Amino acid sequence: MDEKQALDAFAALSQETRLRIVRLLVTAGPEGLPAGAIGEAMDGATSSRISFHLSHLEHAGLVVSRREGRSIIYSAALPVLSGLVAFLMRDCCQGHPEVCAPAVAALSSCC
Amino acid sequence: MDEKQALDAFAALSQETRLRIVRLLVTAGPEGLPAGAIGEAMDGATSSRISFHLSHLEHAGLVVSRREGRSIIYSAALPVLSGLVAFLMRDCCQGHPEVCAPAVAALSSCC
DNA sequence: TCAATATTTCAAGAATCATTGATATTATGG
DNA sequence: CCATAATATCAATGATTCTTGAAATATTGA
């Protein structure tokens, strides 16, 4: 994860629909969801709108896709999400462990 | 940290100059840096440009400021950064601890 | 093969954002 | 109190981004 990748990832996560899609896909797990189901979950957004955001997320590396029959299945790119957090944390902690302590606590309690 | 705050924070972090400012301030620690020094560190950006980005970051809650004589000193809002990571992680881990493991490892090794 | 389904691509318009240069505000030293 | 220093604000411009609606592509079942 370099600066360019981090900027792309943050830009992708800074849009309401995309942030919700990422969160939906992360909870959906590795099996993922077809584009149509994602659109229905987003207040029934139009297909072109969902396609635009999914393409954006995929380009940023936050999701991956595969075809299954007529559907395209999207799932969260878990290692990239981890890498983004690691990037932010790596640069957060230089000499100031108090930055990380609450984040570590949040991670420990959720996993 | 709610969705709105997270969106603002991600938007702030998705701009190159602002991401660099945040990283600079985090490494600078609680004592912070005056706006002028931050501008010099950003390839000598104009004062209005730095002021614009600092204002943006402060509005997003990622930095705080205080006056000291003629200078305004900016420093990273460490608890907010922690909260952002916790927000992302909290929603990342639902039933899928493999998302968090690498992030936990990165945090553990840096603090 | 044909019709229907699922999704993507494209062009155009509105909205938001970043940069610049000029001007205003605030504070200090002499 | 004045001149200077440090920073913020404002207006204008150019660049990106989001949304919509229409048309294109890919896949399957009958």
Short description:
Chains A, B: Residues 1-96 form the HTH arsR-type domain. Chain A is α+β, with helices and mostly antiparallel strands and 111 residues long.
Query: What fraction, in percent, of the residue positions of chain A are helical?
Result: 55-70%
How much of the polypeptide of chain A forms β-strand, as a percent range? 5-15%
Q: Tell me the greatest interface.
A: A-B, 46 and 44 residues
Mean pLDDT of chain A: 87
User: Helices and strands of chain A, in N-to-C order?
Assistant: HHEHHEEHH
CATH superfamily descriptor of chain A: Winged helix-like DNA-binding domain superfamily/Winged helix DNA-binding domain
User: What is the overall silhouette of chain A?
Assistant: elongated
Tally of extended strands of chain A?
A: 3
Oligomeric state of the chains? Answer: homodimer
Q: How many domains make up the 3D coordinates of chain A? A: 1
CATH architecture of chain A: Orthogonal Bundle
CATH class assignment of chain A: Mainly Alpha
| DSSP summary: helix tally of chain A | 6
Q: Major sheet of chain A, described briefly?
A: 3 strands, antiparallel
CATH topology of chain A: Arc Repressor Mutant, subunit A
Computed over alpha carbons, the radius of gyration of chain A is: 16 Å
Strand order of the largest sheet of chain A: 1-3-2
Note poorly predicted spans of chain A. none
The CA-CA distance between the termini of chain A, in Å, is 23 Å
User: Pairing-aware structural class of the strands and helices of chain A?
Assistant: alpha+beta
Keywords (chains A, B): DNA-binding, Transcription, Transcription regulation
Domain HTH arsR-type (chains A, B): 1-96
GO molecular function, one term (chains A, B): DNA-binding transcription factor activity
Protein name (chains A, B): ArsR family transcriptional regulator
